[in-house]
Specification:
Largest sheet: 6 strands, parallel
Order of helices and strands: EHEEHEHHEEHEEEHEEHEEHEHHH
Bound molecules: nicotinamide-adenine-dinucleotide, 2-amino-3-ketobutyric acid
CATH class of the largest domain: Alpha Beta
Number of strands: 14
Oligomer: single chain
Radius of gyration: 19 Å
Number of helices: 11
Number of domains: 2
Length: 318
């Protein structure tokens, strides 16, 4: 991998993705070249591993000063309100998800930053999109405020690239599963809780119904995809909104069966709540052939290899 000298700012570094992405970026670029920032206190796993700055991405002036003071060349913007939390306060979700991105894109334009990363989500798709192997370019009519904000964000990314030459790159992540940092209020969070409860109590009541298929991905694949996209030559990238990205697709019943291979007494029950409607509006799987063609994307984990790794790593944490 050809790593040039860059100074990176990760915004939202203490979240589910941020902790692992910051750690990986520090390995690649050097600890002092990756500044972690968040509203929250520094995450335990980041303490002592590199610079940390408390910053509210909504405060554009403060963010601008931080970027100039630390000679930042690249920004990874991870701060956002996710789907389930967003439905409880739509106005706040829209405000934070949009204004954070506009603040970063404006500063990137003014300061001629070299690259920006901002994640979108499979939540951009809605009930009128094809349900299986959802294509990159199709009907996009999201019905959650989270999905609406992600779709609008994708248009802004393409706009800043086309009109101002900002090299902003993006992935439509599936639901991400990990054990290092807790998830932040999404609909796919059940696929993390289920492992924790299987180890702790040997039972779990799922908030989605047994046959709800969703696109999912194990965090090591998501981190690798992010870095591979950011390292790809700009000329290879045909998508400047956000790339579809695929890992695996499974239902609560199937993840339960995968867990039962390790914990035979595991009991799974179902009590769908408001998140069922969100999940029902999303695809079961997505077609990521453009990511495969443009920057040779290939996931490594399937459901059973992920289950084995999750249970092994969570065993002494619960
Ligand atoms: P998270 O909620 O775990 O982390 C977000 C972090 O941003 C938190 O640590 C929070 O304190 C911080 N933050 C919130 N408001 C802030 C502000 N005003 N200023 C600075 N920091 C602020 O979220 P995540 O799961 O790590 O997701 C990161 C990004 O990836 C989001 O854009 C999310 O939509 C996207 N994404 C995540 C998933 C997933 O499954 N985790 C899937 C698709 C897309
Ligand atoms: C959520 O469930 O909100 C996220 C996502 C798929 O964007 N995990």
């Amino acid at each position: 991998m050809n790593i040039v000298k860059e100074k990176i700012l990760v915004i939202g570094a203490c979240g589910q993705i941020g902790v692992e992405l910051t750690t990986e970026l520090r390995k690649l670029y050097g600890a002092n070249n990756v500044v972690a920032s968040d509203l929250r206190d520094e995450h335990e796993l980041l303490k002592g591993t590199g610079p940390y700055v408390s910053c509210d991405v909504m405060n554009k002036e403060m963010l601008h000063v931080l970027i100039i003071r630390h000679n930042i060349t690249q920004v990874y913007l991870l701060a956002a309100i996710l789907s389930a939390t967003g439905e409880k306060n739509p106005a706040l979700a829209w405000h934070i998800n949009m204004q954070s991105l506009l603040n970063v894109l404006e500063i990137a334009k003014e300061e001629k930053l070299t690259k920006i990363y901002w994640p979108s989500s499979i939540a951009v798709f809605g009930p009128n999109s094809p349900k299986q192997n959802t294509p990159q370019h199709t009907i996009i009519e999201p019905t959650t405020i989270y999905g609406i904000s992600k779709f609008a964000g994708e248009r802004w990314c393409e706009y800043y690239h086309a009109h101002y030459g900002v090299d902003v790159r993006s992935l439509r992540y599936p639901g991400l599963i990990s054990y290092k940092s807790a998830p932040g209020g999404g609909t796919t969070d059940y696929a993390i809780e289920i492992y924790i409860e299987a180890l702790r109590d040997k039972d779990y009541q799922c908030f989605l119904s047994e046959d709800t298929y969703l696109p999912m991905m194990y965090m090591p694949d998501a981190i690798r995809a992010t870095i591979e996209l950011m390292e790809a030559p700009a000329a290879n990238l045909s998508v400047r909104s956000s790339y579809n990205l695929s890992g695996m697709s499974f239902s609560p019943k199937e993840i339960g069966a995968s867990i039962s291979k390790h914990i035979p007494e595991f009991a799974l029950t179902y009590k769908p709540d408001f998140r069922q409607q969100i999940a029902d509006s999303w695809p079961g799987s997505v077609d990521d052939s453009l990511a495969q063609n443009d920057w040779q994307w290939k996931p490594q984990y399937d459901l059973d290899t992920m289950t084995a790794d999750m249970l092994k790593n969570l065993a002494d944490k619960v």
